[in-house]
């Protein structure tokens, strides 16, 4: 049923719970797991109020990549001796867009991700990654609280 499960991780507590849930589901269905960390880079458009020079932006992006590498290393430790294939990937871009695109590209059968709900009015205007993924994904989505 679930041959390949995509699990986005960002280092949050809910992401780790989602990874644990995906591993449990994966054991039952003998699923391949793809763990992904999505980096949303700094850019001038996102920082209109405080324009930064190119070198500062590149340094910030480099730091984000280092954090992403650490998150994936922690994921590898959590996965441990999972009995089936596990792959790790880092994507760059808007998280919900990259997660949805990657799920199509790798032909994932499900997405398991943590909820990092924004509260109140911020969520109304911005929406959360988990909300957007659940709305636009073409495969089942499990949101772990």
TrEMBL record:
InterPro entries: Rossmann-like_a/b/a_fold, Universal_stress_UspA, UspA. Belongs to the universal stress protein A family. It comes from Phascolarctobacterium faecium. This is Universal stress family protein. The lineage of its organism: Bacteria, Bacillati, Bacillota, Negativicutes, Acidaminococcales. CDD domains: USP-like. PANTHER family: STRESS RESPONSE PROTEIN NHAX, USPA DOMAIN PROTEIN. Residues 1-145 form the UspA domain. Gene3D superfamilies: HUPs.
């Amino acid at each position: 049923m679930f041959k390949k499960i995509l699990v986005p991780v960002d280092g949050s507590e809910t992401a780790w719970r989602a990874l644990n849930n995906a591993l449990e589901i994966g054991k039952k269905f003998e699923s391949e797991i793809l763990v992904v960390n999505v980096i949303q880079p700094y850019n001038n458009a996102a920082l209109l109020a405080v324009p930064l020079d190119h070198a500062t932006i590149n340094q910030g992006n480099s730091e984000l990549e280092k954090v992403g590498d650490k998150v994936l290393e922690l994921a590898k430790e959590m996965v441990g001796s999972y009995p089936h294939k596990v792959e790790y990937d880092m994507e760059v871009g808007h998280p919900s867009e990259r997660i949805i695109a990657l799920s199509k590209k790798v032909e994932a059968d499900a997405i398991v991700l943590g909820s990092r709900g924004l509260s109140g009015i911020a969520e109304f205007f911005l929406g959360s990654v988990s909300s957007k993924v659940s709305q636009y994904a073409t495969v089942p989505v499990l949101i772990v609280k």
